[in-house]
Design brief:
single chain; mainly alpha; 2 helices
């Protein structure tokens, strides 16, 4: 989507910066600045399946590792 490459809500679009999704950064942007699956009547029909697959994958990965809580 070209909306994710606009420089006004996303400075340095090609740079990896996970801090862009911190709560204080999200509050500064318009709510439509990040639409990975679209919105409204044109929303991706695979949205729920994709989210479910991501959760299953994450659970499968975490099950393979021993977590140590300090």
């Amino acid at each position: 989507m070209k909306i994710h490459m606009r420089p006004d809500p996303w400075p340095e679009t090609w740079q990896f910066d996970p801090d862009r999704f911190l709560p204080e950064q999200v509050e500064k942007r318009h709510w439509c600045a990040f639409l990975p699956f679209g919105h409204g009547s044109r929303i991706c029909i695979g949205t729920k399946m994709a989210m479910t697959m991501m959760k299953i994958t994450l659970c499968s990965l975490l099950r393979e590792y021993e977590m140590q809580i300090f």
